[in-house]
Specification:
about 280 residues, alpha/beta, Rossmann fold, 2 domains, three-stranded mixed β-sheet
Length: about 280
């Protein structure tokens, strides 16, 4: 039985890892302007075939996944819409969703059926050379429900399960951005500011715990500016964190150590629930 075609636009860490994870289930094509990258991707079996122009998108492609920076997603989807000859289902891997979905609604695309996605997977290393076949294994993937038919949402959800996702959560784009503002974007900003607040001469003494807490601060700064600037709900997350921090400082100044213990105990219990 012939495999269905999927196209991955963008062969960085996310796109290349997706190609590796789907290679046995689909005929994976890749689109990149970099011909050398396409050759490397084909030689390492990340993709079955590479193209470097939107006009070369195969007419029988089952689904297209856009794996480019957040600021480039809408433009890329619009280019796909102009290039394809028939209706095609398109999703993405963008870390924010509402601004993307809203702009795509306004664009009134003629041939693209768009359903937004965000796999909670990745790493601080970037590029095709960092691709991991198991990057999406056991991951949570958000799929947005406010743009696209129920049939298309189910297709995109199945696509991610074939990539290895353990769970697909279908949410509104607004709820998605609120959630990831708390559990993804806030921790990244906190890790970066923590590193920045410590004198360079002391960083060298950081042990395993310090490295764990600050690991995500190694992420590409340009990509993260794209992300934080497109999620207005991050400010609410930061304000809530500041309230908790201010409360901790107040308790410490007043030497109310029993109250500090209660606060830390509450955090301990919440974190242990995450393990289960």
């Amino acid at each position: 039985m012939k495999k269905k075609k999927v196209l991955i636009v963008g062969l960085g860490l996310m796109g290349a890892s997706l190609g590796l994870s789907l290679g046995k289930k689909y005929e994976v094509w890749g689109l990149s302007r970099d011909k050398k990258k396409l050759r490397t991707a084909k030689n390492t079996k990340i993709i079955f075939k590479g193209i470097n122009a939107f006009s070369d998108i195969p007419h029988d492609v089952e689904l297209i996944c856009v794996c480019v920076p957040v600021s480039k997603i809408v433009e890329t989807v619009s280019r796909i819409d102009k290039a394809v000859s028939r209706r095609v289902l398109v999703t993405d891997v963008g870390s924010t969703k509402k601004s993307i979905v809203d702009k795509i609604k306004k664009a009134k695309l003629k041939k693209v059926n768009f359903v937004g996605s965000h796999p909670m997977a990745g790493g601080h290393r970037s590029g095709l050379s960092s691709a991991q076949a198991r990057l999406y294994e056991k991951s949570l993937v958000f799929v947005t429900r406010d743009h696209g038919t129920l049939k298309d949402i189910k297709k995109v959800s199945l696509f991610w399960k074939k990539a290895g996702a353990a769970r697909v959560s279908v949410v509104s784009s607004k709820d998605h951005d609120k959630i990831v503002g708390d559990i993804s974007h806030l921790p990244h900003v906190m890790a970066s500011l923590l590193i920045e607040s410590i004198p360079s001469k002391n960083i060298q003494f950081g042990g395993a715990g310090f490295k764990d807490v600050t690991r995500v601060a190694q992420g590409d700064a340009g990509l993260w500016v794209d992300i934080v600037s497109s999620n207005p709900f991050l400010l609410s997350s930061l304000k809530e964190y500041r309230k908790t921090l201010d409360h901790f400082i107040k308790l410490s100044k007043g030497k109310k150590w029993s109250s500090v213990k209660k606060l830390l105990s509450s955090a301990e219990k919440k974190r242990k629930k995450l393990n289960s």
